[in-house]
Amino acid sequence: MGLLEVRDLRVHYGEIEALRGVSFSIEEGAVMALLGSNGAGKSTTLRAISGLAPPSSGSILLDGQPIAGLSPRAIVRLGIAHVPEGRRVFPGLSARENIMLGASNRSAPSAAIRREADAMFELFPDIRGFADALGWTLSGGQQQMVALARGLMAKPRLLLLDEPSLGLAPVIVQAVFRIIADIHRRSATVLLVEQNAHMALKVASWGFVLESGRLALGGDPATLWSNESIRDAYLGGAQPTATA
What we know:
Distance between the termini: 36 Å
CATH topology of the largest domain: Rossmann fold
Number of domains: 2
Strand order of the largest sheet: 6-7-8-3-9-10
Order of helices and strands: EEEHEEHEHHHEHEHEEHH
Structural class: alpha/beta
Number of strands: 10
Strand content: 15-25%
Oligomer: single chain
């Protein structure tokens, strides 16, 4: 049994069926990439797991226990943190204050939370000098690092990352994925939704491709790249070389 089990998951937005019987599992300690074109249902999958998009049917199990239908707050307390697309940094709060909000569901003294937030600047050195800068003054890359740090403050067993490289310059994308690899080395389990398939498959141990709300293919990165039709349609064309 995996850390997370998703079974025949269906999600509707009104009359639109966004997910059509999606099933997969994630082993503890793995990084799984969820790939596909815009509108395939990737973000909806994360939203269903974190309680933001209630399933129409199917089940979501954490350590074998059902979590579908629980509130987002309850799901965070069980060990799942969601870093949403678009970063969602509070513009009028400092970087440190934004990061500290990630611990809002934990029972810990405020002084301890502040120390933990300050320790995040060691993991994210690119924002170390911006701890007291307001969210609206940060660059897109800095905001993404604040959002990642905020997610880690929940001390999650499973970290859901939705498009962490979206809208970032290539050099910042490289930095963000180095941090994701470092998060994995710290024994966190990661479910990664990402348009940049080249980068996602470099850090993932397994991947799935979503197509119109259904899983089209699953496998290790080499298997996904070896499927020419999947590669051309969803993974950006030719397989990257060893020096890419």
